[in-house]
Amino acid sequence: MKTAPLALLFVAGCARLHARYADVNGLHMYVEEAGSGPPLVLIHGGGSTVHTTFGALLPGLAARHRVVGVELEGHGHTADTDRPWSFDQMADDTAALLDQIGIGEADVFGYSMGGRVALHIALRRPDLVRRLIVASSFYSRAGMPPEFWTGMEKASPDGMPAVLRDAYLAASPRPDLARFVEKSKAMMLAARDLAEDELRSIRAPTLILVGDSDVILPEHAVAMFRLVPRAQLAVFPGSPHGAYIGALEYAAEGSRQPEAAAAMIEAFLTGGGGA
Q1: What is the DSSP string of 100-120?
Q2: How far is 177 from 79, CA to CA, in rounded Å?
Q3: Domain containing 118: what range?
Q4: E strands within 78-199?
Q5: Beta strand 231-236 with 206-211: parallel, antiparallel or unpaired?
Q6: Across-strand partners of 32?
Q7: What is the CATH number of the domain that holds 246?
Q8: For the purposes of burial, counting CB atoms within 10 Å of the CB of 104, is it exposed (0-12), middle (13-18) or buried (19 or more)?
Q9: Which residues lie below 8 Å from residue 203, measured CB to CB, with a gap of 6+?
Q10: What is the number of structural domains in the chain?
């Protein structure tokens, strides 16, 4: 099993890291666990791994929670299959994994693509979701400006951030960047808009996070906040996509925002903020 450098750093900081695979829905799915306490499921962003998305937050989260970090189909250590990707399928895979490892209910934290997967879990398996965190994600195409979708139609391996490309190549059992990008692009372009009534049906307390310079339009995050009944919203100033949680593709050296985000997330998970 290959381990990316960030994973090695996390192992050094959290000696009880446990990495394994689970066979669910025809997928050999990679999962890492660390810490103890209430279960917290982490779902990484597109093109990312558990560590490229959550490496800055992992040690603190594992100090208070049983962290369950999944890697979705074709991402990180989880090999691709011949089926097309979809948010529904990734949500079902994650839910099946939680069923298999005996987690009946968990807090679910998804970033970017993983945030959309987390929304689908909340809709398809509400019994699994105690509290929900959706970071820099979207429920409809209107969540990103038109130029995002124009760029997505032309996406190529050359446009993948180097830190994500390197992590993918280091971890993937069968790396194929061209295939990876084509399947990512096809999933995004085929994604349906979630209906407003679907968002209104989410009963889990929900924390919505976004940067004011995000790929996701801040007004879209506000709209999601208005639709989800028990939602809270935080907008991080001067922050591009995921920088506020330290996601490596946009992380800013010396930024204190991941520290602030971690405190906010912990307060939410422990019942702060009145959700």
Answers
A1: HTT-SSEEEEEETHHHHHHHH
A2: 12
A3: 5-274
A4: 106-111, 129-135
A5: parallel
A6: 19, 69
A7: 3.40.50.1820
A8: exposed
A9: 126, 229, 230
A10: 1
Amino acid at 184: S
Beta strand pairing status for 39-43 and 231-236? unpaired
- Stated length of the chain: 275
- With tokens 């407003």, the residue in question is 196
Q: What is the pLDDT of residues 11-24, one digit of tens each?
A: 334 436 799 999 99
The residue among 16, 111, 130 whose CA lies nearest residue 70 is 111
pLDDT in tens, 36-76: 999 999 999 999 999 999 999 999 999 999 999 999 999 99
180 close to 169: Cβ distance less than 8 angstroms? no
Contact assessment for residue 180 and residue 74, using Cβ atoms and an 8 Å cutoff: yes
Say if residues 185 and 156 touch (Cβ distance below 8 Å). no
Torsion angle in degrees (nearest 10) through CA of 142, 213, 109, 144? 10
Query: Strands 206-211 and 129-135, how do they pair?
Result: parallel
